[in-house]
Each structure stands twice: as structure tokens, then as C-alpha cells.
Amino acid sequence: MAPYSSTSIAASETPLIELRDVSCGYGDRVILERVNLRIPRGKVLALIGTSGGGKTTVLRLLGRQIKPISGQVLFDGVDLAGLDLDGLYAVRRRMGMLFQFGALFTDLSVFENVAFPLREHTKLPEAMIRDLVLMKLNAVGLRGARDLLPSEISGGMARRVALARAIALDPDLVLYDEPFAGLDPISLGVAARLIRDLNDALGLSSIIVSHDLHETFTIADEVAMIANGRVVAQGTPDDLRHSSDPLVQQFVGAHADGPVRFHQPACPVNQDFGLGVSA
Ligand SMILES: Nc1ncnc2c1ncn2[C@@H]1O[C@H](COP(=O)(O)OP(=O)(O)OP(=O)(O)O)[C@@H](O)[C@H]1O
């Protein structure tokens, strides 16, 4: 976590993350257009929206895996585009990332998986690494599973190990890409509660990309809905639940039809099947 200093009060007024008028894409294809987002410190922000809308792309912008075509991505007030490689690595160390299914190293024990970022990014003595790893494993309830291999633990436990690994370096921000995918309802509830509790206990900020609206709405302070490359709604979970925007209503209410059509535009049915009716 960032050390306190005489500038910390001013710094705390700056959002940890800000996207200012960001457009970006892959090759010639524009994916996000003039997106504005602010992620206040200490909060859990959920990014929701239709598949392919650009949620993961926002996470990639934050890690500067991709750069904007225009606009700025600010981390703690600093424009990521202006950082040299050392600066970029320093910023990335302040971000923990948990990607779909956790992606643990299958040939390393639970302990070594969590120790990995500490060994990679610090020169801490072994005794301190041990204590830090056991503290993180304790925080996710898995200190007792330290010697097991990923193949010997359940999917829900693996996700918690990945979470312990994501917070190993005491980040300021944790990015979660589909943290609940493939979990049974109990493990899902446990993972969601853990994300919220760790956020509050460790003074983190968190961004969750998820299609699991029920669980996400339970733990998020704010939700931003991304569709067609734009932020179409941002507010508290209740704001979105009660939004009058037809697209938000369709998405949050899980309705098959609405602004996002079930049917792709097509020629009349009778033309294809000769039925004498039209779609
Ligand atoms: N590396 C890439 N190269 C080219 N196009 C890409 C690349 N990554 C993503 N895209 C495209 O960019 C668009 C946005 O993708 P992104 O993964 O950000 O969406 P998403 O909202 O996270 O989707 P989902 O909910 O399905 O995970 C999609 O149309 C996708 O096909």
C-alpha cells in the first residue's frame, strides 16, 4: 500500500483510477469510445455489460497491456502513457490481478503459488516470505492447505488461493476478471464475501468484471455498465436496478428481447422457408 505522507490528504482526493475520454481498440477496430470512469479509493466497482462490450479491455488499459488511441488512463493521478518501463512495472506492482479461473501454476504447491510474486518482485528473506504467504493464506482461510497441489483442492479453494496470490504484494488495486465463473453457489458466495472483506480490511480498491449480477450487486459500491463501447450507466447497484434506461433494464432484468435483439436482422421467414408468414 502507498505509504502515508504529507501529500496523502491531497492524494486521497484524487481517484485511484480515472479514465478520461478514452478511446481504444485492436488494429483498426475501435472498441471503446470516449469512455469516462472514476474509481474512488476504498471502493468496489463492478463492470458489467453485454459480451464483447469491452469490459476486459478496460482492465487491459489499466495494466497498459494496450494503450488508448486518445484520452488518458490515470493511476493515482499519473498518466500511464507517460511511464517508462520501470515506472510501468512499479505501477503494476500496485495492482493485483485475478483472471478467469485463477490460473494457478499446476506444478507448484499452494504455498509456492502465493510466494511466486514475492520471489519474482522482491528480495525478501525466506523467513519473511513464509510469514507473508501464511498471512495471506490465513486471510482466505487456507493456511492449512499450504502443502497441497492445485490438483488436490476444489475449484472454490483454487480461486481463494489465486486471490491470496493477487494480494501477495499488498496492492492498492485488485482487478478481478470473472472471479465467480464456474463456482458452485456456496463457493461463489464465499468468494464474493472474501473480495468485499479483503477490500475493506486491507484498504484496497477493487474492480470486478462479472456476469454474475446477483453476487456482484451484493458486494459492489458502484456499478458501471459498458455496452457498444460506451459507459451507458454508472451508479449504485440500486441506481441500476431502478434505471429507466431500456438497455440497463433488459440487462439487469435478464430479458431476452429489448434494445439488444434476440434475432439478428434477417430476411422474412417465408422467404427462407416458404411458409407464407413473416418474422
Ligand atoms: N486481442 C484482441 N484482438 C482483437 N480483438 C479483440 C482482442 N481482444 C478482444 N477483442 C475484441 O474486442 C471486443 C471487446 O472484448 P472484451 O474482451 O473487452 O469484451 P468483454 O466485455 O470483456 O466481453 P466478455 O463479457 O465476453 O468477456 C470484442 O469484440 C473482442 O472480440
UniProtKB/TrEMBL annotation:
<keyword id="KW-0547">Nucleotide-binding</keyword>
<dbReference type="GO" id="GO:0005524">
    <property type="term" value="F:ATP binding"/>
</dbReference>
<dbReference type="InterPro" id="IPR003439">
    <property type="entry name" value="ABC_transporter-like_ATP-bd"/>
</dbReference>
<keyword id="KW-1003">Cell membrane</keyword>
<dbReference type="InterPro" id="IPR017871">
    <property type="entry name" value="ABC_transporter-like_CS"/>
</dbReference>
<dbReference type="GO" id="GO:0016887">
    <property type="term" value="F:ATP hydrolysis activity"/>
</dbReference>
<dbReference type="InterPro" id="IPR027417">
    <property type="entry name" value="P-loop_NTPase"/>
</dbReference>
<dbReference type="InterPro" id="IPR003593">
    <property type="entry name" value="AAA+_ATPase"/>
</dbReference>
<protein>
    <submittedName>
        <fullName>ABC transporter ATP-binding protein</fullName>
    </submittedName>
</protein>
<keyword id="KW-0472">Membrane</keyword>
<feature type="domain" description="ABC transporter">
    <location>
        <begin position="17"/>
        <end position="253"/>
    </location>
</feature>
<keyword id="KW-0067">ATP-binding</keyword>
<keyword id="KW-0813">Transport</keyword>
<dbReference type="Pfam" id="PF00005">
    <property type="entry name" value="ABC_tran"/>
</dbReference>
